[in-house]
Amino acid sequence: MATLSFFYFGSVIVLTALLVVALRNPVYSVIALLIMFFHIAGLFVTLHAEFLAAVQIIVYAGAILVLYLFVVMILNLQQDDSYQKQVKLGLGLGLLALAEVIYIISKVALPEEPARISTAAGESAAAAVAGNTETVGKALYTTYLFPFEVASLILLVAMIGAIIMAKKGMMGPGVGPTGEPR
Amino acid sequence: MVPLSYYMILSAIVFVTGVVGVLIRRNIIMLLLSIELMLNATNINFVAFSYYLDNIAGQVFVFFALTVAAAEVAVGLAIIIALYRCKATVNVAELNLMKW
Question: Are the Cβ atoms of B40 and A48 closer than 8 angstroms?
């Protein structure tokens, strides 16, 4: 059952990832990425990371992709973008890198499956007592409290930067894209 | 159950797809989408290792990666909009202002 769900989620993830890169219309690419994010969330659920699955759907599918769609529609792009001239070179380099990574993975000793799954039918005692969200929250607010605050600062800086850069007339005088003076 | 190497290979495939996307696409928005692919590939790896090593730190790192991804998208799309106002194009081949 677990193997079946992994292969389902994995195959859909790979397929939609390829579609994101291959499709010519940016709107279709964004929709393919949406499907991929939902399946990554499903993969997280099979890995017992339920909180991250929910956050993945809320933040990625709900916020980031909507932002992408807005920008694609604001810019009103035509389907004029073709691929770069060096498509074959890029594909070759990608396949080379993939072969290299798979070779390395086949050579290293990876940790085995934790015993808690194979012995008992269910989660471990610790995970059963404290849910996933509670465990993540405890780690986040004790061990990783300082990185957490730094992350909030990063979000503040990104917010201010995005507003300043996207605001009209903030980047100095100039002309609009169709030539009319602002 | 699924061995850990399967998750790593899945993550490697998605990551390389993102790299190829950055290399071959011309639309700068597609470049940002490909970077999202790469970030998600690393997230899959982090969560898989967190599960197999029985350590919650991997999931916390994914949380931070998500934060950085959100910041990156906001700033990156703002840059694209500012760029489009100046040059009226999103084709990276035409954005050669700093080319020597």
Answer: no
For residue A56, the 8-state DSSP code is I
pLDDT given for residue A119 in this prediction: 44
Question: Band of the pLDDT at A169, cuts 50, 70, 90?
Answer: low
Residue-wise pLDDT tens digits, B56-74: 889 999 999 999 999 999 9
Chain B partners within 8 Å of A110 (Cβ): 3-5, 8, 52
Answer positive or negative: Cα dihedral of A10, A14, A15, A20.
Answer: positive
Closest Cβ opposite residue B16 in set A40, A97, A116: A97
Q: Which of B2, B79, B87 sits opposite A2 (nearest CB)?
A: B2
State whether B90 and A159 contact (CB < 8 Å). Answer: no
> Are A71 and A134 members of one domain?
no
Name the more confident of A118 and A69. Answer: A69
Instruction: Dihedral sign for Cα A125, A126, A130, A135, please.
Output: negative
Domain ranges in chain B are: 4-87
**CATH number, domain B4-87:** 1.10.287.3510
